[in-house]
Design brief:
Elements lengths: L2 H15 L21 E6 L4 E5 L5 E2 L4 H13 L20 H5 L10 H14 L3 H13 L5 E2 L1 H9 L2 H12 L7 H12 L1 E3 L1 H7 L1 H4 L3 E2 L4 E2 L3 H14 L5 H7 L4 E3 L4 E6 L3 E6 L10 H14 L5
Antiparallel strand pairs: 1-2, 1-10, 3-5, 4-5, 6-7, 8-9, 9-10
The structure holds 6-diazenyl-5-OXO-L-norleucine.
6-diazenyl-5-OXO-L-norleucine binds next to loops.
Length: 304
């Protein structure tokens, strides 16, 4: 398979379709991004890098970082973690608080904001300096020191963090939160404000395509069965109330972020990151999703 030719075909076809969306503006600093940028990077299991468009431009990875933080706590907490957060799709927007009340403070899954805050809280319990250790971990996954926190984006989120603050207090009222709320929110906003290029993001997801083993870090990051479980969670919950549609159209485990990025994996074959800032009404990148749909159509295979 000529992956370079494949992603170039996909790239040009998507550009011709001239799809439109809206850049996320609830984090004002993110709204300043040039909306016309578009890049794709694919990494095969040997570590070959294929890229097209703005694949080397760093962008705000936002909720895609929830996969990295989940990976960091996955082994440490094991079955204990799953008494604090479930593994069911929510069918609700990423920042919804509705289910938390009638499900007594146990978030549906680790990718909606409520669940991700529980994961970040767990991370704060385990690690001395969680932000540094998240950066260190992702740099290790990439095999390079590439991750930077955009402090303007982080501050912008802190200044408009009413929803996440409410979620954290709500979790605390159900005793599903152990650390000071301000501390956890600071770590959460820091990891959401990390910037990486498509190439580095795809590298950082490569272990999920490779039975838990990262060729860039040169070690087993997660057991084979844990990596499969993270992929299952991405497939069922990675796109919030659009998870079904992504599985239907694309058929790969993936995770989106409101910066316009999507990272996905084809188990046993490759990892891929696509980025374009304009989002649909569910908060997922219009061009990135279309690109991945075309990609699996042209490949004539997906998970299914
Ligand atoms: O919590 C927030 O609102 C953002 N830091 C992350 C949101 C996000 O990326 C949701 N995913 N599509």
């Amino acid at each position: 398979m000529d992956y370079q030719q494949l992603i170039e075909e996909v790239y040009h076809q998507v550009q011709e379709e001239n799809l439109k969306g809206k850049v996320a503006d609830y984090i004002p600093e993110i709204a300043t991004v040039d909306p016309n940028q578009f890049g794709i990077a694919l990494i095969d299991l040997k570590g070959n890098v294929y890229g097209v468009g703005d694949h080397n431009v760093p962008f705000s990875i936002q909720s895609i970082s929830k996969v990295h933080t989940l990976t960091m706590v996955f082994n440490v907490f094991n079955s204990k973690l799953w008494s604090r957060v479930n593994v069911e799709p929510s069918g609700d927007p990423f920042n919804s608080i509705a289910q938390l009340e009638y499900e007594k403070g146990i978030p549906r899954n680790p990718f909606i904001n409520a669940g991700a805050l529980v994961i970040t809280d767990a991370l704060c319990s385990k690690f001395e300096s969680p932000v540094d250790q998240i950066i260190e971990f992702i740099n290790e996954l990439v095999g390079d020191t590439c991750v930077k926190i955009n402090t303007h984006v982080k501050k912008s989120e802190l200044n408009h963090g009413e929803r996440n603050t409410a979620l954290a207090y709500f979790l605390k009222s159900f005793k599903n939160f152990n650390n000071p709320i301000d501390q956890v929110l600071e770590v959460y906003f820091s990891h959401c404000a990390m910037e990486m290029s498509c190439v580095d993001l795809a590298k950082s997801f490569s272990y999920l395509a490779n039975n838990g083993y990262s060729i860039f870090a040169n070690r087993q990051i997660l057991s084979e069965s844990s990596a499969r479980r993270i992929n299952a969670l991405m497939l069922t919950c990675g796109f919030y109330d659009e998870a079904g549609e992504f599985a239907y159209k694309v058929g790969l485990p993936g995770k989106s972020g409101v910066g316009g990025g999507v990272a996905a994996v084809m188990p046993h074959k490759f990892s891929i990151a696509v980025w374009s800032p304009e989002l649909n009404e569910k908060g997922n990148s219009v061009k990135s999703i279309r690109a991945l749909e075309l990609l699996t159509d042209k490949l004539a295979f997906s998970l299914f």
